[in-house]
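Per-record layout

source: Streptomyces violarus
name: DHA1 family inner membrane transport protein
length: 416
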Amino acid sequence: MNTRGGVLHATDAVRADDRERPPTTRLPLVIHVLALGTFLMGTSEFVVAGLLPEMAGELRVTVAQAGLLITVFAVGMIVGAPLMAMLTLRLPRRLTLVLALGVFAVGHVIVALGTSFALLLAARFLTALATGAFWAVANVVAARIAGPAASSRALGVVGSGAMLANVVGVPLGAFAGQFAGWRGPFWALAVLAVASVGLIARHVPHDGPGQQVVSIRSELSALRSGRLWLALAACATTTGGVLSTYSYISPLLTDRAGIAAGLVPLVLVGFGAGALAGFLVGGRLGDVRPYATTIMAAASTTAVLLAVCLLSGFAVPTVVLVALLGLFGLGANPVLISLAVRFAGKAPTLGSALTVSAFNFGTAAGSWGAGLALGSTLGATGPAVVGTVIAALTLIPTTGIALTQRRRRRSTTAVF
């Protein structure tokens, strides 16, 4: 018996498990339909960043207080994703997606009609609950339909809907807010959500007759996975680092870089285009080298944010760095979602839901800290400083995942 040959075969088997096979050439249409839903929800979450001055003025609150509309949305998704995933566990996934879109539409009508800041906060929280439910279930549906060979790629496409929101939805919302009032974008989102219900109902397949009904206890067993918690920690820090800066990007661009307020939406387009490209490329790379992709994305994001802190007084470098922040800052997200779903084992719905919670925990914590920094002596640069620190922390869990996988590979090799 050739021992060396046996070791090589075992190593190859482990690598085949750790590195997904190359993706297929074409993904099913339903993946792109789900991406349309995330486009609407990404627009809803991020459009407030481009409307903060207008909303603050009409609601008679400070810009930092208006930023709570971002924070409360993130908090709602933190709570809503796992809670709604558990409450709808026995519902058909297609029905869950349709109901989530319906509640999403209602939440936006309330915001469009509301005049009380407290009412708007409550409506944003309600909308976030629906968004968390939709996103968690959409990730599971996409991963299962695409199969393990292309799960990161499929999740990259689904998530790219939110990134496309930054290219199209958020800038359009910002322009509309400047010319037609900030309520207009919320009316538009409500109408589009209702229209999307039909597409989801038509294209998302029924749960198969062999679909296993998983108990809540079985789902909660996934919480014993240490690798899952490392992936969730990375989800929180990578998003927190980017969005703590992005949530208050308008003051940085206008007060620090000297860019006219009317040009801010164009800079947001640059961020969105970078994020869209990063999501798609990150998803493809994640099917081949997931661990290297997450580490490099974290290191690159930290470097870009540090450069923003140092060069934000110059308009052109700042605009370029904002686009690069989108490219590197969110590129690892589909990989992290795919890893979390895999590490959750027999509880993919909870694993997916927890990634949504983790991303938004990072957003809530980051935007809260950034708001405090904005009001400190750091001024408009403060959110970027906070973002740099948070992004650097991503290197800890991503490196931990890679080392854990290496130990598992060596352990499996030793057995053979």
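summary: Confidence is low (pLDDT under 50) at residues 1-24. The chain has one domain: 27-206+218-415.
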